[in-house]
């Protein structure tokens, strides 16, 4: 999840997101900054704040994971 794409366009700050979704900033920051994927629970919290179904978030995470693993396999990287 990119902050500038989802939160900024919705006019929601990270602290507002944390308050509405009841998720600690330490859980949100890595996701927003692209350092962590989303858990299965996070889409339910995301849909409380942003207007998108939980399945959308899970589908995007799955697509990213498949792309990332495929890229690593294609390059011969076994450390994924």
Explain this structure.
This protein is mainly alpha-helical and 80 residues long. The protein has one domain: 434 Repressor (Amino-terminal Domain) (Orthogonal Bundle), CATH 1.10.260.40. The protein has five helices and no strands. It has helices spanning 3-10, 14-21, 25-32, 42-49, 54-74. α4 crosses α5 (54-74). The protein is elongated, with a radius of gyration of 14 Å.
Structural class: mainly alpha
CATH class annotation: Mainly Alpha
Q: Radius of gyration in whole Å, from Cα? A: 14 Å
Indicate the low-confidence ranges by residue numbers. none
CATH architecture title = Orthogonal Bundle
What is the number of helices? 5
Distance between the termini: 20 Å
Tell me roughly what share of residues is in helical segments: 55-70%
**String of helices and strands:** HHHHH
User: CATH superfamily name?
Assistant: lambda repressor-like DNA-binding domains
Helix and strand arrangement:
Blueprint: H1 3-10, H2 14-21, H3 25-32, H4 42-49, H5 54-74
Short description:
The protein is mainly α and 80 residues long. It has 5 helices and no strands.
Key features of this structure:
80 residues, mainly alpha, 66% helix
């Amino acid at each position: 999840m990119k902050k500038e794409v989802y939160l900024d366009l919705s006019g929601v700050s990270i602290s507002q997101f944390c308050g509405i979704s009841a998720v600690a900033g330490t859980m949100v920051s890595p996701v927003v900054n692209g350092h962590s994927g989303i858990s299965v629970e996070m889409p339910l919290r995301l849909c409380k704040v942003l207007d998108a179904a939980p399945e959308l978030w899970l589908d995007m995470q799955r697509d990213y994971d498949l792309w990332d693993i495929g890229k690593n396999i294609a390059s011969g990287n076994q450390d994924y």
